[in-house]
Design a protein that fits this description.
By secondary structure, the protein is α/β, with parallel strands linked by helices. It has a single domain, classed as Phosphoglycerate mutase-like (Rossmann fold). The protein is 31% helix and 16% strand. A 6-stranded mixed beta sheet has the order 3-2-4-1-5-6. Strand 2, helix 3 and strand 3 form a beta-alpha-beta unit. Helix 6 crosses helix 7. The two termini are 29 Å apart.
Amino acid sequence: MSLLLIRHGPTAWNRDRRLQGRADIPLSPEGARLVRSWRLPARFQAWPVRTSPLARARQTAEILGLEGAVLPELVELDWGGWEGRSLRSLRLDDPAEVARREALGLDFRAPGGESYREAAIRVAPHLVGEAILVSHRGLMLAALAVRTGWAMQEPSPVAFAHSDAILIEAGTVRPVPLSSP
């Protein structure tokens, strides 16, 4: 099993640090420019592609020249009543409640939303074989939990920036830079 997880390019909501969840926010002009600067390493170019149905992920795949199946299961985590809000504002409004929920790790759930565990169950059947998944940060974290056993109660097994993909392969996890030097 070798998976390359690619997060969609930046949106206006990413710039504003708002939780997007299932809101179908497109790439910002700056985000599209950034994705145009990304280069998929040759090793991955023949791998099958699976993409979230949300516009920001589909646009990212299209700009990268990646074609493949659009799968509803790859949609972002449902942030429920927190969608559109920033974590900063949530922490200012009720720091104890946000901390309590975050301490739950895989069982974290925004009010009226979906837990990372539920997202992990939904994405697990698609984490097989060699594949590229173009999706979202929340779903990437759920995929890491599935593939590494990470309970999300300690730091992520890999640090990654917006311009990094994550490669999960042969028991290892590492970032793969997509931006040209």
